[in-house]
User: Fold these one by one.
Assistant:
Number 1:
Amino acid sequence: MNNEFLDFDVVIVGAGPVGLTLAMRLGLHGHKVCVLESQEGIETDLRASTFHPPTLDLFDEQGITSQLIEAGLIAPTWQVRMNDTNEFAEFDLSILKDHTNHPYRLQCEQWRLSGFLRDFILKNTPNVSIFWGHPCTSIVQNQDDVVIHCENKALEKINFTCKFLIGCDGSRSIVRKNLKLDFEGQTFPETTILATTLFPFQDHLHHLSFINYCWTEGGTFSLLRLKNLWRVSLYPSLDESIESAVEINSVRRKINQISPSFGDSPVLEVRPYKIHQRVVNQYVVGRVVLAGDAAHINSPSGGMGMNGGVHDAFNLAEKLNSILNGESMDLLMQYERQRRPIAIKHVIEQSAKNRARMQEKAMDKRLFTLRELQKKSEDKNLCLAYLLETSMISGLVESFKIE
Ligand SMILES: Cc1cc2nc3c(=O)[nH]c(=O)nc-3n(C[C@H](O)[C@H](O)[C@H](O)COP(=O)(O)OP(=O)(O)OC[C@H]3O[C@@H](n4cnc5c(N)ncnc54)[C@H](O)[C@@H]3O)c2cc1C
């Protein structure tokens, strides 16, 4: 294939949930689309597990939502808990019923969404091609097209051309780096240790929800349930290295502090990760556009990153469809105007607040926050406003009002 140019309307770099959502939507509009993915298949690492109501609403039409619901677990409530006293504030999402067809969070692995999207694309949109094992190495933008260079495993150089290139290639985006854009923000000092287990916490901790953000003496953890297992987010002890914090004995010791009945129950998987908070200074440079983690990253607290990226993809697909059907390229700037402020104001700010709340160590401040949250959860109007925001409904509605 050396020196050959493969031509498409749109090339998407990255077959994560955002790239595949965009490919599906553009494919359904009938455009000739190619997705370039560096891996040989879908990444199955432990990442997003929470789907918010508007994301489920958006995927409904294609039948993806019913597949997610079948594979996942409906979480009608979520809690902030004081582990040592079993006090909690619980938010019931059924209050959102007039604002969404899915008034709950859905707990399901992100890779399942990617799998459903890939299968949908293969079955329903022959105009979309996915090139697995094809990392994009560089891009060149011209007046009327973009050229993308790839090198596959056999070290063959393959070139693609397209009218629009979309970087959905995650936080280390090569597309963003090629555009030399600033990815402004910070990396938080803590490392989170994510562990999974089949241990039935629900039988051992009083009135547990499927989603629990917990304070414990001197620290914090979260307990998120998936259909068949629990995900526990832990933190290294003071002066503990990351290497020793990921060791099975250290993970077990910390889980035993949460629930002593855990004993030496099996731990299935352990993964450390750092938390970043960044947004790129521009989403659009000519014919090249960024979406998802390539454009914005945030603390996973509250489960908003993938959801926000999927909302980008739905928005961008409609703009690209209109442009490919003859409308002005200015619509790309409207995508940036509609999505970048929402990432900053609603996703990054809210997830930073969620993180800061749980990182608080002072008992009096924790108790004050807990009481405030309890008041919110019991007052209909306050609860509705808070859940519209934290369930990402307000941000999505606001984005569409921006001209
Ligand atoms: C522990 C954890 C928990 C999380 N929980 C949640 C949650 O509950 N809810 C939520 O909404 N979000 C959550 N997130 C965030 C979520 O995982 C990300 O926001 C999401 O993966 C972003 O999707 P994406 O498609 O933009 O990028 P990615 O998922 O990173 O996909 C990018 C793709 O691009 C490919 N790629 C990269 N470089 C190249 C290249 N040069 N050429 C070709 N392909 C390339 C990669 O292989 C990858 O497949 C969590 C994150 C973490 C780490």
Number 2:
Amino acid sequence: MGTLGLKKYVLIILVIIILNPFIFTSVNGQSDSRNLKITAIPTIGLSQLPEINYTELDAAWNDQKIEMLIIVNDSSFTDAVTPLMEWKNQKGVKTIILSNYSSYEGRDKEEKIRNMIKDFYEKEKIQWVLLAGDTEENLIPIREVYNPDVVEVGGESEYSTWDDDYKPTDFYYADLTGTWDDNNNSDWGESAEYNGENDEISWIPEVYVGRLPASNPTELSVMINKTLKYETDPHVGDWMNKMLLAGGISSYSPPEDEARLTEYIWENYVIDEAKFTHLAKTTSSFTPTIPLSPNSLGSLNSTSFRDEFDSGYSMVIIAGHSDPTQITDDSHEVYYKNTDALSSTNTEMPSLFYADACTTSSYDKGDNSIGEISITRPDSGAIGYIGGLRVNWYYDDDEKLEKLNRANAKLFWREFFVEKKFQQGRALYDSKVTYMNSDYFVRGEASMIQEWQRKNVLTYNLLGDPELDVYTKVPAEVPDYFSGNIYEGQCISFQVEDNLGRTVPRARIHLRTLSGKYRTIYADVDGLVEFRLPSEAYENYSVIITGHNVVPSYFNFTTLPDTDMPELNTVNYDPINPTATDNILFSFNASDKHSGVESVFLLLSKNSFSDFSLTRLSNRFNENKQEFNVTLNKLKPGEYSYLIITRDYTNKTSIFYEDIFSFSIPKLFTDFVLVVASIMIIGLVGISIVVVIIGMKRHKKNIKNLR
Ligand SMILES: [Ca+2]
Ligand SMILES: [Ca+2]
Ligand SMILES: [Ca+2]
Ligand SMILES: [Ca+2]
């Protein structure tokens, strides 16, 4: 390994060297300029270096894409949703309100709205869609999909007089790549079985969808204000760290205990994150585990669920049977009614409410379902409600809790707690994908050609803001990561942990300037974030950090000018005596105290840089590495000199050169090698002939084997 401990003999931009070699000597106070090959360098100018391409960085700071759409029927709803849009924009989720669906193509309003969402999905970077209006009065209609599950199952039908063939779903607005009507017969979302060829649905959603089922602007304001208060000024209390789980009896014969599911969820997911209360009603074949305090086990009955719910829980699941207005089970005891929802007293403690049951969220059929009432309650009830619009399914003897309803519920809470997807829309839609990729499907027991599978994926929808972070703990502020000196063009990296030392997964770091820069960077699931500032000094930045269990935290800073020249600390190459058959590995350690190293250039020349090859090694915008390595192509024999240039993110350039920056590739001894080789070949042939001859003599019978 050739290692040179580099002293900074040369640190000056090349232009100066070119103009006057003596300046170098005086600037650096180096009387000893013996190593400089200044006269040999003049053909190199900095203009020959490729420029820093700031396009991507500039776009990130000046042209942030839209991330969220709030869709209203008409401008009479705009005022109601404006405060939420303003807050989303303030925290850095770039959001717009749309009502101009009628300017998009489509056979009906649903298709126009979806084409509008698609258009923004293709042009912008939208992840979140909030449908701000009820399905009735044709405000924001829901897509009716051809999904005759009850007909296929036989002997079953939808609740009441509801249609057995066509079922509503907002999944239509989330999957933007499926045709949804391949054969153009206005039977939407048909499976390949009915369509005759292709599944009309692509089952991977592109955006996360939620709905606020408001019938008028006043109702919408109520839900918007509840959402806004939850995000910006919540009632702080122990409720934020609590989950209520309730499992009833789906069947006495055979015994089907949903408490098996709710127990599985707390044992595997909840216990590491939150306190909980488990309410269970069971058959004799299942005895729930008694959890350790402060968690508790209680009996599920006609008052316990309602009373606990009203006492305040951030997260709630109940599993049983139901119709739109009451949740019950095979014992016919009623655990929760729409009238309970209408008088909920969990004031300023609204829950993410998951109802693993049929039809509780049939918001397209009037306004009296448990789901719709829970979400529309002012200040109480639900901040998010996930439930079925229609009948949905479970299988008996589902030991692994991997089928239909149980898997849907289990995987939702798994995404939420284990994958740390604390935004309710993300957890819901990602859990659907997880379900369809689960072992149950992989091993071929389930398929999306089955109408009951389609039904379960389509019918569980979200009422509420899909982007909202659900609390699992009392929130805390985060520390000021911008308190030290911050330089123009600097790459900033840190791990977001709140003031209690808790990691903030997917934390949102939003920065803006008065000059119009606006950028949001998301941390990864471990809270790690890395991004680069623009190369502009004396810019004043406002920062807001938000995220799961975070009190919105505000900071500001001003960028300092980069006054530090980029350094080259070491250069190595290997092998130290290279030959024409080697691929030389060059490695550099470069640094810059302020904006950081942008590129290291290696110039290699056989003629004192009259011409040279240029190798560029760069940092990406979101990295700040100091070690750079490159393996060169094989070099022809000759005497080589090399020169290294380091550049920082403010375009400051330093050049490093000494006359020991050279090596030689020895001339290939081609003739000699050939002669030797032919002698050897002759020798080998001779020997082998001898062997063969001898062998033939000795082993005539085995002659074939000798070949
Ligand atoms: Ca069709
Ligand atoms: Ca899709
Ligand atoms: Ca409704
Ligand atoms: Ca610098």
Number 3:
Amino acid sequence: MTKAVLFDIDGTLIRTGGAGVKAFERTSATVFGIPNGTNHLRFAGGTDTGLLQDYFRHHKIQHSLENTARFLEAYVHFLDHLLATTSGAMCPGVTNWLGGLERIQNPPLIGLLTGNIRLGAEIKLRHFGLWDAFKVGAFGCEHSDRNKLAEIALRRCGMMLGTPLDGDEILVIGDTPLDIECARSIGARCLAVATGSHSLEELERHQPNWAVPTLDSISPEMIRTATSPHKRIPRVRTMPGKKGSR
Ligand SMILES: [Mg+2]
């Protein structure tokens, strides 16, 4: 039985119209004097702190606590402003899914498993009126490795529910192969959605338990049906996915 459902943010719950990427770029140009300094970064599925490590290494900037704080403080400032001016949107089916999960008998804990730093996650989700839907989370400020964030989330869900959870009692929902990998790393099941940066075909190659074009393609009720992380479950496939960015 699924006791917790953990959502990725970018490309899974929302698409910011590139506000996150632009906020990174703006910070690089403004605070560190390096225009276009983030072009080499691969944002999809990454963690903010992992991206920052790559950024500092690439530009030979000292990876100090002070530089990290300077970067992230400016980043959230720009993110807040850019969200108001870029054309983002909630991903299809999100509202129905969150409502559907709450209506299930003995509803699962609803949480976040995201590479965003906590404040960045809050700024993005508040912008779309979604922040309060999530009762628990593991965030990119807690570790640069997404698989480690999954371990943190697993422990944290157990603490919230007052009993340790097995991995297969968790469902991870995400839009990249890295989300699928982090679910697998803790023995969780994974629902991959092609509403972000990867096509349905790309996601299917990584063999999530389910792969769907959008959350509209599958019901939250399906989480009742699966009890084993090893059981092969037919994937749903009805239409091509959409491209998106952080
Ligand atoms: Mg994502």
Number 4:
Amino acid sequence: MEKKYNFAAISGSLRKGSYNTMVLKAAQKLAPENITIEQLSIDEVPYYNFDLHEKQFPDAVEMLNDKIKAADAVILVTPEYNYSVSGVLKNAIDFFSRSPKKPFDMKPVGLMGATPGMMGTVRAQYQLRQMMIPLNAYVMNRPEIMISQAHTKFDEEGNLIDIKTTEFIENFIASLAAFSDIFQKQ
Ligand SMILES: Cc1cc2nc3c(=O)[nH]c(=O)nc-3n(C[C@H](O)[C@H](O)[C@H](O)COP(=O)(O)O)c2cc1C
């Protein structure tokens, strides 16, 4: 029987017309039958403040901690804001990093990102890689999905229409499944 995988995926953009959320949804559609990709929303995560979790973590964060902990791998899809990740994604990561559940500990992670600009979120993604170190997550080295000129790669309904990007994402999903196998053997 074919092995099944459950990936969790977070978009670092809250806006409705987000290219990064379009990338996440494209990955959900492109995933083979044995891989499910559940979108986790960070919309409800409050601003990080120690006082908020001194006694108990906010419910929205606890729900994310549990889903991340249970996932075979996590996909982070990041926009690039001022050469870095979006504030809302960094804020959520700060919460994850303080949870006693350690949701990202030894977690296989894949990074993707999209921008209408030419650099494909490369600067944000390398910062995100670095951010994953204190959480003891393991970020897959290749393939890297850095989507430039995103506005030319989706139609008005948000469907991915670029063949090369489609192939890259399919390969990324298969690679992340193989990468996550390494961690389950331990
Ligand atoms: C505050 C801010 C800073 C930005 N800085 C960058 C940047 O450094 N590099 C880049 O490629 N795009 C930058 N952009 C443009 C974003 O890539 C663009 O808004 C993109 O659509 C955001 O991702 P989303 O479509 O998923 O919301 C910036 C946008 C905002 C709002």
